[in-house]
Design a protein that fits this description.
About 40% of the residues lie in helices and about 15% in strands. The protein is of the alpha/beta class. The protein has a domain of about 210 residues: Rossmann fold, CATH 3.40.50.1100. The protein has a six-stranded mixed sheet with strand order 4-5-13-10-11-12, with helices on both faces. The chain starts with a strand and ends with a helix. The structure holds zinc ion.
């Protein structure tokens, strides 16, 4: 890989050769992929990328840690739409607002970006089986992307995972283990099994390449805005890998001279489960919290990638903000009704946090903001109905309908 220098531990700084099945540092720290930005700058321009006819995340190969002959996995991941939403901007009281709908990926979440990378690296390293633990989306996305590439999967999910996500896993033919425990216990079981059976590890907090897939959402936002960077990017934070990836993506572009600005990141967690935000705000080490929010994808009391995430919030000059479950349900309604985008609870949590900050007057009126919808609402229809309410039920009788219509339009 000409564009990659090495892997470097974020805790002790030890450097490693960028082997495709690298895991964590011997000190236990998470590794980071270190790029040769001079090489990228000398060999690629923004126009090279903009003129690519590969409309997937793999259009960003100059910024991806793969060999030149690494095969792109089959599913079409990335290049999700970035919708400009002037009415929402007006409601929020900001100059410009865009919604990045990453629920439109093949298995309906942003996690497909990490899974596509994980599958590519597993094949590069010569594995035939890949495994992970997940609150749901990483699992369903790994199952789909691995199925398309002909890899076997072992997947560990906590038993509270929504049925839509479990259905995806089973349809994609994964070996699914529904763990009678919380996310932390699920993660530990998957780790023990992976160690014992020697599968390729698609746990984003262990496999540093996955974040490099996730970062493509930031590269896309920049390219879709004509290589201009918004003032703020809002998204939900769970394990910490996604916000860390978003920050890495924007920094890559900046370091390679493709852009001349970095955004501030708005990290949104649940009021009940916010270990990363709390640490980012206070500067104290993070502490475990209970898993207690209906937004299952971010119900992470013991985050596995806290250091990179806290660093992303602090280094970007970002804002940590917490929202209630009711505010998340309200954001589901608003995003659906104003933008025509159906996000799952964690998918719209970024939107919920942004709304709260705007109402508190903490976002300047001349700001430009992107909110990322990280997963599709059809994964969790129970909460969709909770947010939107039940439909009216009528007899097949026009008089009944007329009464209803007149009531409605009074
Ligand atoms: Zn280390």
């Amino acid at each position: 890989m000409k564009n990659v220098k090495c892997l470097k531990c974020i805790k002790c700084g030890k450097e490693y050769e960028a082997l495709p099945d690298a895991t964590t540092c011997e000190c236990g720290g998470i590794l980071d992929v270190i790029y040769d930005y001079d090489y990228i700058r000398e060999n690629f321009t923004p126009d090279d990328i903009s003129s690519s006819d590969n409309y997937t995340m793999w259009r960003y190969r100059p910024f991806l840690p793969v060999e030149e002959d690494t095969v792109q996995p089959p599913l079409r991941v990335g290049w999700s739409p970035l919708y400009e939403e002037p009415r929402m901007a007006e409601k929020l009281g900001i100059r410009k607002f865009w919604l990045k709908d990453d629920g439109l990926n093949p298995t309906a979440s942003l996690k497909d970006r990490a899974s596509s990378m994980g599958v590519a690296k597993a094949i590069e390293a010569g594995y035939d089986t890949i495994a992970c633990s997940s609150t749901g989306n990483a699992a369903s996305s790994l199952a789909g992307n691995a199925a398309a590439a002909g890899l076997k999967t072992y997947i560990f999910v906590p038993e509270r995972a929504p049925i839509g996500k479990v259905a995806q896993l089973l349809i994609f033919g994964a070996n699914v283990v529904s763990v009678k425990g919380n996310y932390e216990e699920t993660f530990e079981l998957s780790k023990a099994a992976i160690d014992e059976y020697g599968w390729y590890n698609r746990n984003a907090a262990i496999n540093c390449y996955l974040m490099e897939g996730k970062k493509t959402v930031a590269l896309e936002i920049a390219e879709q805005l004509g290589w201009k960077i918004p003032d703020y990017v809002a998204l939900s934070t769970g394990d910490g890998c996604t916000i860390a990836g978003v920050w890495k993506g924007f920094k890559d572009l900046y370091n390679a001279g493709f852009t001349d600005k970095l955004p501030k990141l708005i990290s949104v967690q649940s009021v009940n489960t916010c270990p990363i935000n709390r640490a980012a705000r206070t500067g104290e080490p993070w502490e475990p919290m209970e898993e207690n929010t209906l937004a299952d994808s971010i119900s992470v009391g013991v985050p596995r990638n806290p250091d990179k995430a806290i660093n992303a919030i602090v280094e970007s000059g970002g804002i940590p903000v917490e929202v209630t479950d009711d505010e998340i349900l309200e954001a589901m309604r608003i995003t659906g009704r104003e933008c025509g985008v159906f996000g799952e609870p964690a998918g719209v949590t970024g939107m919920a946090g942004l709304k709260k900050l705007c109402e508190e007057g903490r976002i300047p009126a001349d700001a430009s903001v992107v909110a990322i919808v990280t997963g599709n609402g059809l994964k969790d229809t129970v909460n969709g109905i909770k947010a939107a309410g039940e439909p009216v039920k009528l007899e097949p009788d026009i008089d009944k309908f007329r009464a209803y219509y007149e009531q409605l339009n009074k």
